[in-house]
Design a protein that fits this description.
Layout (H helix, E strand, L loop, with lengths): L3 E6 L10 H4 L6 E2 L2 E2 H11 L4 E6 L3 H10 L6 E6 L5 H8 L8 E6 L2 E3 L3 H10 L4 E7 L9 E3 L5 E4 L2 E2 L12 E10 H5 L9 H11 L4 E5 L4 E3 L3 H12 L11
Parallel strand pairs: 1-4, 1-6, 4-5, 8-13
Antiparallel strand pairs: 2-3, 6-12, 7-14, 8-12, 9-10, 10-11
Helix pairs in contact: 4-7
């Protein structure tokens, strides 16, 4: 069996959810009878990813306390407590020592999805990709930065960066990044160490511009994030109506 490890990004301030996030970190927001970070852990475990690193900064003690008090089933957790907020890239790099195996699945703690993760990992491996970003159709290209895929699922435009293989025809279906990616070990070498790093602008954009093997895997199923009060309320409604059943609950 091929070994993968996982990483949940859980360090941020949750600015758009203030003032609630001043007292409760976004990963501990309730969803159904569980909370966001437990849903993310159970989702990874369900797909065979049982070693999970979690980076912590804003109210990190509360998150660690919640998970230590009643440890989630089936997961071996590693906490990376950041002294300063390291950003998405710096967070991943800071957890490098805990990320074993050939591929690493990274997920934002504020995402809810029923993505076929095994399918995404298989696709990533079949392409021998440096990284594979899980994408979905972009409902609002004016507001949310768009990505474009070329032949065979190659990522040819990432926000402002275009690969040498880019062609304006690629723009038919604007895509958006879902906050879930599968990374090869070599990708970690591309992240500068010891300082905060934005993975989008400082790692992905240059890789795409250089024509490196970065791919997209499109997800048509359920996806939501709880980054704003509106999207959090909408996700809660989806749980009430049964459109989404949080992981770690009786399904």
């Amino acid at each position: 069996m091929i070994h993968h490890s996982g990483m949940i990004l859980a360090a941020g301030y949750g600015e758009r959810l203030r003032p609630e996030t001043d007292g409760i970190p976004k990963p501990l927001f309730k969803i159904g009878s569980t909370n966001m970070i437990r849903n993310a852990i159970a989702y990874l475990v369900r797909h065979g990813v049982t070693e999970v690193a979690i980076n912590l900064f804003h109210l990190g003690r509360m998150i660690k306390g919640d998970l230590s008090k009643n440890p989630p089933k089936g997961a071996k957790l590693f906490f990376v407590e950041e002294k300063v907020l390291m950003g998405t890239g710096g967070g991943i790099k800071g957890a490098e020592r805990f990320l074993g195996g050939s591929d690493i699945v990274v997920i934002n703690s504020d995402v809810l999805t029923d993505l076929d993760l095994a399918g995404a990992i298989d696709f990533h491996r079949s392409k021998n990709a440096l990284a594979t970003l899980v994408t979905r159709k972009n409902p609002n290209p004016e507001k949310i930065g768009s990505l474009a895929e070329g032949e065979g699922g190659r990522l040819v435009r990432f926000l402002g960066s275009k690969s040498p293989a880019y062609d304006v025809e690629n723009e038919n279906v604007p895509l958006m990044f879902t906050g879930i990616h599968v990374l090869s070990r070599d990708f970690l070498k591309k992240i500068p160490a010891g300082r905060p790093v934005n993975v989008s602008t400082e790692v992905y954009a240059p890789l795409v511009a250089a024509g490196e093997p970065v791919y997209v895997f499109n997800h048509e199923g359920y996806w939501a994030d709880i980054g704003t009060p509106e999207s959090y309320r909408a996700a809660q409604e989806d749980v009430k109506s049964g459109r989404f059943v949080p992981y770690g609950e009786t399904r």
